Amino acid sequence: xxISAPFTLSGTAIPNDARQMLDQICEHFIEHAxxxxxxxxxxxxxxxxxxxxxxxxxxxxxxxxxxxxxALQTAxxxxxxxxxYFAGEDPLDLTWxxxxxxxxxxxxxxVTVTGAQDITPHMRRVTFACADVTxxxxxxxxxxxxxxxxxxxxxxxxxxxxxxxxxxEGEDExxxxxxxxxxxxxxxxxxxxxxxxxxxxxxxxxxADFARDARPGDRIALMGPGGGGRPDASSLLLIGDExxxxxxxxxxxxxxxxxxxxxxxxxxxxxxxxxxSSKADVCVRWIHRETTDGQNALRNAAxxxxxAAPADRYIWIACEKEDIxxxxxxxxxxxxxxxxxxxxxxxxxx
Length: 350
Prior knowledge:
By secondary structure, the protein is of the alpha+beta class.
C-alpha cells in the first residue's frame, strides 16, 4: 500500500476483464477526481478520499485512504456501485479487508416537505426541512432523492458485504433518483430541490411525479451530498439544458464579485427561462428548443463557445449523454490543464 490516512481499507476485485474495467474507471472518474495513471496503477484523489487501484493478473487490487470513517465507507460504496455498473451482466467478485458497518448509511438524511410550487410551467420546486443542513453547505451539489412507497413504514438502505448499497426490495422498494440541491438556507434549516416536469407523454418520471403530488408533511430521505461540486474558478463557461439548470443557477449565485461567467442554457421556450442572480459579471444565452430546427442546437452552440473560450476559462457542461460524448473530445483537444473542465451526462435520449 502506497497511500496513507487515518482510515484505510483494501479490497480485491475479479472482473471479467480487469484491464477494461480499469480503463472504464479512469474514463469516468477523471471528471470527479484528480486521476493519474502510470502503466497499470491508477491513483484518484479528491478532498475526501485517495484511491489506488493496481492491475495484478486478472485482479484489481484496491487501497482506500480517507480522513474519516464516514468518508471511507462512502468511498467504498461509490467505487463498488460503479464497478458493478461497469461490469453489467458480466460476473464480478469484490471483497474487502473489513466488513461494512451495520446500521443505516452515514450520509442518509431524513427530510420533510414544507412546501411546493411551480416556478415555470415545467419546473416544480419542493422545499424540505432538514435537522442539519451543514453537510449540504459544501461544494457538492448532488443527492439521491429516496422516496418510500405510500402508506408504508419506510425501510431505508444499508450496505452489502461487497460494498454496494443494499436496497429494500418488493413492497418496500424505494424510488431513487439523482437531483441537484438548488439552494440551502441555514437560517431556516431548509433545502430547495427543483424537479423538471417532463412534457413528453409515456415517459416514466417517478421523481417528477413525487414533486407534482408533494404535500407539506411528506417524509422522504436524501443520500449525499456528493459529486458535481461547484467549480473553484473566476472565469466559467456553463452549458446545459433544463436538467442542468438548477446546478447552473446555483453556481452563478455562488460566484463572488469580480468573477465572469458565460452560460448557454437550452429550454423549451421563453416561459421556461428563470431569473439569474449573481454578483459576478454574467452573460446568459437562452436557446428555445421549440423554435430551433433539429436536436443539435445546444451542441452546436456549445462547440462554438468551447472553440472561442480562453485557455483559463473553466468549462462546465451537463446535458444529454450523446451530446456529452460529442463535446468531450473538443474540450480535451484544446490542451486545457487538468481540473479545468467538468462534463457529465444527466439523461439519455430514448
